[in-house]
Each structure stands twice: as C-alpha cells, then as structure tokens.
Amino acid sequence: METYRYLHRELACPGPHELYFKKLSTKKRQAMEKNGNNRKLRVCVATCNRADYSKLAPIMFGIKTEPAFFELDVVVLGSHLIDDYGNTYRMIEQDDFDINTRLHTIVRGEDEAAMVESVGLALVKLPDVLNRLKPDIMIVHGDRFDALALATSAALMNIRILHIEGGEVSGTIDDSIRHAITKLAHYHVCCTRSAEQHLISMCEDHDRILLAGCPSYDKLLSAKNKDYMSIIRMWLGDDVKCKDYIVALQHPVTTDIKHSIKMFELTLDALISFNKRTLVLFPNIDAGSKEMVRVMRKKGVEHHPNFRAVKHVPFDQFIQLVAHAGCMIGNSSCGVREVGAFGTPVINLGTRQIGRETGENVLHVRDADTQDKILQALHLQFGKQYPCSKIYGDGNAVPRILKFLKSIDLQEPLQKKFCFPPVKENISQDIDHILETLSALAVDLGGTNLRVGIVSMKGEIVKKYTQFNPKTYEERISLILQMCVEAAAEAVKLNCRILGVGISTGGRVNPQEGIVLHSTKLIQEWDSVDLRTPLSDTLHLPVWVDNDGNCAAMAERKFGQGKGQENFVTLITGTGIGGGIIHQHELIHGSSFCAAELGHLVVSLDGPDCSCGSHGCIEAYASGMALQREAKKLHDEDLLLVEGMSVPKDEPVGALHLIQAAKLGNVKAQSILRTAGTALGLGVVNILHTMNPSLVILSGVLASHYIHIVKDVIRQQALSSVQDVDVVVSDLVDPALLGAASMVLDYTTRRVH
C-alpha cells in the first residue's frame, strides 16, 4: 500500500501533478505547454503475446484517441500468430486496431535452442519493417525474449525505445532480459516506487523515468461491476458459484526446466486432491512448455470433470474470472501483480516471480517440492478475501504515459546519462515462515553447566536442555554433539527449521575460524579447540562460535535493550565478569580477539588477586567467585549468619548467602557488596571515558544488586559529559543462549526468504 500512497499523493494533486512532470525543468515544461513537437509523433507498438497485449492495449487505445498528436503503427509477432496458443492476434483486430505488420518469428520446439533461434529470426525480419515504418519511438513491454529482439533492433537502428515495466525483479531468465532491455531503452515507464529506484540504481537518467503505474490497472480497477456470472458459467460450467473455483496458470522456468515440470505435476496432483472446479490455462511458449502440456494430458486434465483446460481467455473475461475466484495458483506475474487489485488469494509457486512486490493476498511456496505443501497452501488461501492492493497502480497510468510521450524532444541526443544510487531490498512472505519456525540451535558452555536451546527468530527459547559440563575435552565434545543431535531431531517434531548452530563459550575465541584459543580456568582442557568442524560435520549445518561476553552483547543488540542502539556496552556479572562492545552497530573483537575483557580492567593497584594472574581487577572484586571468597571468610569467622539465616552443612557458602546476609542487615556483608559495586562502577567509568557509549547494560544474576551503586559512582567519578549515560539492567533471561542464536539468525536471514 505504501507505493500506492506514494503514487496517489504525488499524482493526484491538481495541475501538472505527475511526479515526472514536477521534476521537469521549467524550460522543458514550457516546451510541453507550447507543444514544441511540430509534427505528430509516430509511435510503433510491438506486441508478442496475450500477456503483453493486456498491458499495451490501454496505451494503444489512448494513442488512438489523440490523432492530433500521434500516429500509431502496430506490429504483431511471436505467439500471437500461433494456433496452439490461440491465434491471439484476433483480439487485436477485434479491438479495431489496424495491424501494419505480422511477423512469424517463432521457431517451434519449445526448448532453449528454439528460443534462441526465435530471437535470431526476429532480428533478421525486423530491420525491413522498421525501415519501412520509420517510427519516432517504439514501445516495448516487459521481459520476453521476443521483446529483447525488438529492443535490440530498434536500438541498433537509432529508434528511441520506451520500455514498459522496467526495474521490476522476478526470477528465471526474464530478469536478465528485462534488465538488458532497460539498458537498451531510452525512456522508462515503471509501475512502483521500488522499480523506479531499481532503474535509478541501474544508472538510468531519472529525467527519463516515469512512475505511472501499470496500464492494465486502468481497466482492472473499473472491471468488477460487469456481469461476471455469465462469464464464469461460460468457462467453468453452469453449476459453479462465485468464489468456489480456482484459476491455475503456470509457466516453465527456463533456468530450471526439469524442476518446473516436476512442480507442475505436484500442482496438478494437489488440485485434483483439493477437489474444486479449476480453470487451467495452457503455459506460454517458453522452453519447457511442450513438456508441461504433456503433463496435463498425462494427468487427464482436459477430460477431468473438475478441470477446464483452455489455451486463451480474452483479457476482459480473464479479469472477471480471477476477480471472483476462490484462489489463483501458479507462477504467472499476473498472480502477483494484477490479481492484487481484487484481493483474490494467490498462491505463487517456485522462484519465477521471486523478488516481485506483492500485496498481502500472495502466499509464496518457493520450495514447492511436495504435494502436501501445495495442498496446505490451498487450504490456507482458498476462499479468503484480502484488501484490494494498489501497489502497481491507481487506474490513471495511460494519461500520464501519453503526457510523457508528448514531452519527448526528438531533437535531444539519444546518448544516455548515468548515476549510481542505492536500491532497497524487497521482503515478502514465504509459506515456510508459516508452516515452520525459523530457528537456531544455541549452545552455552558455562563453567558449571552445558546448555543447548532451540531459539526462534523472535527470541523465544522453544526448548532447552541442560547437563553438567564434563571436566575433560573428550567427554565435553561428545556431550555437545549428543545434545545437539537430539535437539535437532526434536526441532523437526516442534516444526522448527534449524538454520545453523551458535556457540557461546568462556575464554578467548577466534570467531572467524570457530576456535577457542584460550579458556578460563573454569573450563578445563579447553585451549586450541576447533568447535566448528566436528559440529558442522555431524549436523551438516553452518556453525558460529564466540566468547560469552560478546554473545551477551549480540543478544542485547537483537533482542534486548540494545536494539536500535548504535553504541553500547554490555557487562556480565556472574561467576566471572565479562562483556561485549557494540560500536556503530558492529561487535568489536579486537586485533587478537581480546577486546571487551572488561572483567580484567584494573581498578586498584593493591587489590585482591585475580584468576587472570593480575590483581585489583573488577573480577577480583565483583564476580560471583569474589563474593563467594568473601562470604567464606565471614562464615569461617562466624560473621556471616544473622538472625533469620541458616546454611545447611552440606551446602557450600556462596555469593547468594552474602547477598542474603546484607539484605538482613549484616553490616560487613553490606560493606563487601558496596566495595564490589564500587569496583564495578569505577570500571564502568573507565569504559565511559574510553568508548563513550550511549548505553551500558548490566547483565547476569548480580546486576540488580549493583545497579544503584554503579550509578552513584558514575555521578561521583565520571566526567560531566558522560554522566547522563543510561545504565540499565538487562531484561533477557538467557543472554548467552540468545546471543549464540543471534549469530545464526542475523547471518542466515540477511537474504530475502
């Protein structure tokens, strides 16, 4: 809808309102107003097949209504002139257009070689026609191989080309042909804002691009008020009701013919099982169409009581059929473009239209590799009614195109100008996103426990498995593999698609190679360990590995309070002290993968010994190990327990006992916590003075006990320019697992689904 709003806003205001004409120079606008072209513009419209004629016909009618400005020559070629494809040139004659030239250019065979030979035959025949007609401009539509021959001939003969529907993105060889025609064309009429941006990014001159909308929408948006039931009965039978039938239109994918034939078989099988009256249109003339027709006959489609197989339906009637269908299925561009104008549900199969902008009425089944998947899509879509989509136009394309044609200055040189702006990606819905939950396997290697989780795109931990972390390398690797294999098997039952494995571990990690370089003392036998290779070989999935502090930062960036923040720091307060730094949205690893060892910032020259071998580090004051050490000292001196507290004999004294004692009024315990919080606060001040982040996130079990002390230290010790920084407690329950998962999900979902 955003594209339509753009069109409507820019193209519906009074006066010379079109976006293109707003951008014209004053001189050019004045020339238009004076009708600077002193003679009629001779326009040649060349049409190759039923599909492109539906887009070109509205323009041809518009040209015909203005004989004072235009002379129209019509050239017909391609499948229009073949009986097997309905001899569709007759509908051009029925529309009362004089066909100046008929060119038989199709070499039969319906394979790749025949397509090439057809282009060659057209190139041989077209020069004589163009020499005779001598058009000022040729209008070429779309992305068919016939259109490529037209554009090539016109360009080489210095005839200006107006290309309709350039800049769009789809699948198969059509993309390459469409963009090749764009490079040959001198003027461009596009249908959507994204297509316009694509043309700009392809170096086309913005002044020669018109965002008009699709010409067929001029007819579509006024089509629903006609007597549609008689049309439905004529094509599907007297007993068919509105919204209780299917229209199927599927073409071969020329870059993968074998797979597209198999997909067509699966589609027909699914339609037979679905048991609804179905109008099946024959495929176009691309390579592979002959095999698709054989499949239809093998399945008995032409004689099946639920099917009506036809070579061609006149466009006016076809509009009514898709407007009142319960569903349309196949891979035709009509499904993802025109049908949206009616809100009819569409199932788009395979990759032929991948990248097309679509309304919410379109459900993609890009991996249409099973009958069940297509059948599920039919059950999801059939009979629904979606809002009408005007992505491709608002019904006023032809007046804009005619005005655009009138503005062409034939005295201008043909040479094109170039520029290089960016282009936005288009993301659309895929059936696998509905039928499966895209997920990651996340592994957290802690000092005590080994945890594996199935984590969804939204950060939901679907299932979690926990075991004690073994003490030896062999046992630990074996357990990791076993837990991951079991979790991957369980993911299938939970309808989760595992995209990869992310591992969070203590120590210094080379994430590029997936190797733990040096571990902390909490995890033994864990130096120079290649984690990526055994997991990837066993699970046949990509594997990412990083330090647990970095993973916590990545978890905050994707799922937590760091989302959308350009610069922030995460500090983990657990058994040890770790952290991660996000700078300009990217994680900082450092030259030797040692960045963000924040627990080993020194805050006192004569402080307690640290596990790293130094002394006075934050970790030596504020970690769970440090608090446990101080708790044991107090307990050994009978200074820990206060009224209301008890420690069972078989339970080791730890940090939580110290915190409990402080809450119950133990002054010494309170003093220890205050010292620990102050050490952490001084570390944060050093971070603020070094990195100047906009946010500091305290994570881990001790974070909530330190937050107020840390803020006090910042107020007392930090420079005034950084005292306003936000310091917050993380609201993530499992930052290590979520961070491990985010490595997988961020990388594997960067491409369009």
Automatic annotation (TrEMBL):
The keyword Protein biosynthesis does not apply. It holds the Pfam family Epimerase_2. GO terms for molecular function: kinase activity. Keywords: Kinase, Transferase. It comes from the Eukaryota. Gene3D superfamilies: 3.30.420.40, Glycogen Phosphorylase B (3.40.50.2000). Residues 69-406 form the UDP-N-acetylglucosamine 2-epimerase domain. This is Bifunctional UDP-N-acetylglucosamine 2-epimerase/N-acetylmannosamine kinase isoform X1.
